[in-house]
Amino acid sequence: MRLNKTFLYGTATAATLALTLTACGGSGSGGSASGGTWDKNATVNIGSLYEPQNLDNTAGGGQGVTEALNGNVYEGLFKLTDDGKVEKLLAEDYKVGDDGLTYTFTLRDGVKFHSGKQLTSQDVKYSLERVIADDSQSARKSNLEVIKDIATPDARTVEVTLSKKSISFVYNLTYVWIVNSQAKDLKTAEDGTGPYTLDKWTRGSALSLDRFPGYWGDAASNKRVVFHYYKDATALNNALLTNAVDVVTSEQSPDALDQFKNNPAYKVTDGNSTTKLLLAFNNRAKPFTDVKVRQAVSAAIDDKKLLQSVWGEYGKLIGSMVPPSDPWYEDLTKVNAHDPDRARKLLAEAGYDKGFSFTLDTPNYDPHPTAATFIKSELAKVGVDVKINTITSDEWYTKVYKNRDFTATLQEHVNDRDLVWYGNPDFYWGYDDKQVTRWVQQAEEASTTDEQTELLKKVNRKTAEDAASDWLYLYPQIVVASSKLSGYPVNGLNSQFYAYDIEKKG
What is the mean pLDDT of residues 372-401? Predict the structure, then answer.
């Protein structure tokens, strides 16, 4: 469960802020396979470490449900391509009112759900309302609460009125799955409009998708896709070596890469990641209410050494919540850089010259236990005692995210443009800076993307200087695939993995 539990899979944004709105189409970029003939009836076996919690992305389905179902089984009005562009999908066209508050969407004609029901504006209204409902765990809930009213003047027209301007509104709609308003049991079943239907989900093992013959767009390039789930990277790599799977969505064992890089039967692709590993402080809880304590802890940890111990030559240090693919990126790695002497000085200034102790709530899956042990060792050098409390993904969601019952925690945030969470004082880490909140609000109501970018650069620098969290490193995005495969995604934006363009040679 990366912090994409799809409850948090959100507040990110695409690689370029200027949204490129074009006709729908595939964008798989996994290279081309050589030799053999493409088999349009092939089964593509995909290996993953991220099994869904359930099949509903508004009910805590997790990273796994986004990876398997987003774009494959469910579609939105718009889609986010693998290279970060926004394209029209179920929306054939749209217009924005002069005041920037009214969006009128025209739906594609002839789109049917897997159950056979025709897509209508009522389904779009229902799907948007699900995201902003009180019990929703959607990543876009807070962003889309700007929706004031949804009207459906006819079957193909949706009129959305906002309470205030939102320059990211269309982008945020790429996260909203359009579901059949009459569908039931979406945690265990589905009724989407995508190129695949759900065949079977065997918990703890695999989830299979079949090509949907009634799909409104271009048919999937393969007949069947099976996501196979593994408990650890070693088992996943063994599955690839024995041809049990054709592609690994995200390689988590850099030490194992040589066996693939030096083998012509495989292709290794190092794409762009937006996944950040955070040491997240509870800014409401002492001693992390004190900026000097947060700065001290950040300065005490050698992020570079941690990254190398986990990922070797892969991955990047970032120094803030913003990856290089975001428009407002700035290299802030020198802010609160590793400096144990400065850490000790800051602790003394904060009244902790003899140190302090705190509990670190740590998810029980890699790399969190490794990172927690490393952090404990680093902080001991400056007199800070860390007690590691290892918890499951579900326990993390309830204890940390929902109840805010923690002092510090480790978690992955997978999305791009998720810097804006620091403008929400109610978010789980409780960072509350009035100026930052104003900047985030002003950025969202900006008239131009240049204005938005400049404001969020200020947010980026201020949160980095305040050590609102300690951004340990940016994950690499390494996809390993059989040389018989082409057309697979390589950048892993927001954990989606479009399978419909994958071609497999016989």
Answer: 96
